[in-house]
Amino acid sequence: MEQELGISVKNVSKRFGDFVAVDRVNLEIKAGGLAALLGPSGSGKSTLLRLIAGLELPDEGQILLTGKDSTYEQVQDRNIGFVFQHYALFKHMTVRENIGFGLRIRRVPHKQIKARVDDLLELVQLRGLGDRYPHQLSGGQRQRVALARALAVEPKILLLDEPFSALDAQVRKDLRQWLRRLHEEVHVTTVFVTHDQEEAMEIADHIVVMNKGKIEQEGTPAQIYDHPATPFVMQFIGPVNVMHRQKEQVFIRPQDVVVTLSPPTEPGTFTDRARVKRIINLGWEVQVELSLDDGQSLMAHLSREQFADLALTVGQVVYTTSKDERSFPLDYVI
Amino acid sequence: MVKGKKISIEFLLITIALLFLGAMIYMPLLALLAEVVQGGWDVIVKTWHDRNFQSAVLLTILTAGIAVPLNTIFGLCTAWVLVRQRFPGRALVMTILDLPFSISPVVVGLMLVLLYGKHGWLGQIFDRFNIPIVFNLPGMVLATIFVSLPFVAREVMPILEEVGTAEEEAAKTLGASGWQTFWLVTVPNIKWGILYGVLLTNARAMGEFGAVSVLSGNILGKTQTLPLFIEEVYTNYQTGEAFAASLVLAMLALVTLVLKEWLSQKTGSGHRRIH
Hints:
heterodimer; A: 28% helix; 33% strand; B: mainly alpha; 0% strand; globular
């Protein structure tokens, strides 16, 4: 059986003046997948997305969309759906006109446009708001209109550029889950850009971590979290303690820090003596800031039960080990 | 106490603004209207039937009718290139764009006479094909274009900048060609800027005196626009006729303003234009 093809980026670079935004990137995204490009601002993730869309042209390399060389294909001919960070809805058009725009361009008969727009309004749960103008909608509603507009032309590929970053926390959470479900329904190859690791973990089945125009690591959320390939990924995905031990940098997740009241008995475990500096009780977990004898600080996240068993107080002397840690040579350049 | 003070300052500022506007704009207009009314119906009818007046009105509308569309198209292209493209010399072009505002119209006239006159660099070429420029309609249109050139570009540029490229990009991802994007997305977003620019261009085109005066040769009934006609009859002590013609010119300007207001009311989004 012939395998369906998604997106294939081959050795692509893009420079803006002296700044190398995307540096010889190779990337495969399988058809029907939901991938996240994750990285800090300036890491090249948005540029890579715009290159896939054809909103930018690469300086070198090749981009294949569903198996077809699209490197120099016009945006208009790529049959993609693109959702912009700030929605980019047409201000002078109603919600209906916005969603139907791509179909109007394709000269689809009015009746069919109306039917399709009705379906999409249903899909994005905006029935009854079709005659409003964008400025009469909330941020979350606008972004759903933008999504419906992108989906109206039945794109082969859906690209989203920081789609939820302009929304407030609760709406963002709702929309994430909604996008996940939507993807299960429509099953279009989807790539979205985010700087929020939690968002990437929650939505994507494939995460591509980018830094300084290069791909730092890619894999499933579990692979990225459990086996970070570099200190950068380790630090970017979730909170982490960075400790200096002889000629090594040691990375320990706060939830992997084990706190005991007496020194552990098994030989060979690395143990530190520490003093409790501050206790932050968040309810579902307790964050304990420890000060090691050599002056370094260490953050430990304890469950409520662990905390209750230890009955820690500020100033108390404790011993710390770690369930899991990763070390890199000190001169490793991030 | 503080609030009372604030209100009195507001009141003072409003009064100053209204007095200034009154003295500088409304009263002169009113004085003109009163003068014409006082002069009586006869003068108005006489002016109206004056063949030279009629030809001046037609010529004014003709020059504006050519200059305004050309400057609108050029202004839109310029605005788009200057806002959306980055190229070496862009800053220089921006500066040169304002030149028509800063050079005295008389000087503009002389420059054009030099360039397009019988012995000018370009004039020689046109002369070979027997196309008269200076002291003829083409010259007057050239002068009008020159002095009213920057309005559309200057009005559209800040709006184009503010609107940004996201909507245009969105249209393209949805399959719209460059041309479709321009008409369906860009133009609706900048239409108030275009309209306002066109109105300013038109007002300047109809009212221009200095540059057109140099280029026209001032041939009565042939190369006289309304401002030139008014000046001539006024210096010939036909004050009644001069004022009547002035009123017509002022009215042409008022009509464009009313037209703009009507258009913005009709589309119901006039309040959105920022100025």
